[in-house]
Amino acid sequence: MALAQIGVTGLAVMGRNLARNFARNGFTVAVHNRSPQRMHSLIEDHSDDGTFIGSESLEDFVASLEKPRKVVVMVQAGGPTDAVIDALIPLLDQGDIIVDAGNAHYADTRRREASLRDQGLHFVGAGVSGGEEGALLGPSIMPGGPAESYKTLGPILEKIAAKAKDGTPCCVHVGPDGAGHFVKMVHNGIEYADMQLIGEAYHLLRNGLDLTPAEIGDIFAEWNKGDLESFLIEITAEVLRHTDERSGKPLVDVIKDEAGQKGTGRWTVISALDLGVPVTGIAEATFARAISSQAAQREAAQGVLVGNAGDFEITDRDAFIEDVRLALYASKMVAYAQGFDQIQAASEEFDWDINQGDMAKIWREGCIIRARFLDRITEAYDRNPQLSSLLVDEYFVGAVANGVSSWRRVVSQAALAGVPVPAFGSSLSYYDSLRSERLPAALIQGQRDFFGAHTYKRTDVDGTFHTLWSGDRTEVEA
User: Fold this and answer.
1) Which of 70, 113, 191, 200 is labelled catalytic?
2) At 466, phi and psi to the nearest 5?
3) What is the C-alpha separation between 278 and 340, in angstroms, rounded?
4) Tens of pLDDT along 395-432?
5) Whether residue 67 lies in the annotated active site
6) Is 184 a known active-site residue?
7) Distance from C-alpha of 440 to C-alpha of 436, rounded to nearest angstrom
């Protein structure tokens, strides 16, 4: 019997669609699921996609794979993933490859990779973005793990990955151990920021111009023809134009304004705090989801908390729409810049040697944050691979300069009207912090030295110093 070139265990929607994607691209695919019914239904329903070898037991599944075996695990993150890996280990031989293509925490991936390496097995944590449709038609894939394993696995993953307009596969070896899942985590963090910024733009247009959702959808559709062209802008227009069949109202008006989250946004923020990297746009987007879901607190505040807010004073409708568009674009640039800063910081911390330009390239198609904008990021890293911040690249300097006045007007108008724009506002503050010659951190250092003798550095003399605050307040070198 012919053996399968790759196997997938865990056939919920994502695993099922990945298996079909492999088969559609000419690979013989071994498939397995804890409950065999899903395996059988996949083969019965989609035999036209290609060749599948189904197995009801994990032992038969592994036996149906050619060596070195390549097993893609698509089960729930955490304990269930560990359980499948533990069951696979006794059945595999040295040099075989286990691929975790779920949304695992990168620290878990680092632990698993080290453990399996000690047992002679390769472990690859692969971020996969694109949702159900991407898994089937071509996702963006971010595999980490041993470089040696990518020699075998890479050609298969690149074959099923999305392709950029220039034909480049949206898949590249990111780096060792947990690098792939880390990059996927940051991708999701940027996604949080992008979605929140789009939501704030919608909220501004709705409150400022009293437009219907469908009218705002038309504006987003128009924006999608320019620099803001992206998957998220495209689907936003579709959602806003959709009418609910049951009520006859715009769907967005009958959906509860309580945003859910699966944890990757929180992971991104926690990691950024550990690394000391300010990801203010991503953090505010994550907190905005949390606030939206605090139903009891929000209900208690209604009619109690005083706003003293006025109305939007808009004399030129088109000018306000353009201001919001430019503010959205500028804030979006900050979110991506912060995400890439976080990837760079982790790369240095864990010795991953991640190529920033490659990350922009593999996000151009297939993934949720795919956008024309990513071509600009790719070009920026092509110009300078050692770029300290995307915001200082020549294109981004000009783009923000073109929109900064609009950005300030929008944030100011929103504050005066009492409309929350946490991501717009924090992104502008971050931008101003970068460009400020002096920050109040000097005072903070003075305070820290006063109550805790934490010392400070001076602008005019090298060294570290402490003032004897409880004594005669002379300065001593620490």
Assistant:
1) 191
2) -145, 135
3) 11
4) 999 999 999 999 999 999 999 999 999 999 999 999 99
5) no
6) yes
7) 10
